[in-house]
Amino acid sequence: MSRQLAQRVAFGLMTLAAAVVILPIFYVIGYIVVEGMGAVSWGFIAEMPRDGMRAGGVLPAIVGTLLLTAGTAIVAVPIGIGGAIYLSEYAKDNARTRAIRVAIINLAGIPSVVFGLFGLGLFVIFLNFGTSILAGSLTLGIMTLPVIISTAEEALRAVPQSFRLVSTSLGGTRWQTIRRVVLPQALPGIITGVILGIERAAGETAPILFTAAAFFLPRLPSSIFDQTMALPYHLYVISTQVPGMPIRIQYGTALVLLVFVLSMNLVATLMRRHYRQKRVW
Amino acid sequence: MSLDVNPAGRPPDNGLGSEPTEPYRLVALEARRRHVGLGEILVERAIQVTGISAILLVLLIFVFLVREGLPTFADVPFGDLVTQRWYPIEGYYGLLPLIAGSLLITIGAATIALPLGVATAIFIAEIIPNWGREILKPFVEVLAGIPSVVIGFLGMVVISPLFRRSLNIPTGLTAFTGMVLLAWMALPTVVSVVEDVLDTVPKTYRDAGLALGMTQWQTIAKIVLPAGKSGILTALMLGVGRAIGETMTVMMVTGNAPRIPQHPFDVFMPARTMTATIAAEMGEVARGSTHYHVLFAVGLTLFLITFVVNLAAASIVFQRTRRSERMLS
Amino acid sequence: MADERPAVKIRIEDLAVRYSDGTESLHGITLDIYAHQVNVLFGPSGGGKSTLLRTLNRLNDLADVASQQGRVLLDGEDILAADYDIIQLRRRLGIVFARPVPLPMSVYENITYGLTLAGIKDREQLDSAVERALLQAALWDEVADRLTESAYALSGGQQQRLCLARSLALQPEVIMLDEPTSGLDPISTFKVEQTLQQLKKDYTILIVPHSVQQAARIADWAAFFLQGELVEWGSGHELFTAPQDTRTEQYITGRFG
Question: Residue A84 region, left (φ>0) first, then alpha (ψ -120 to 50), else beta?
Answer without folding.
Answer: alpha
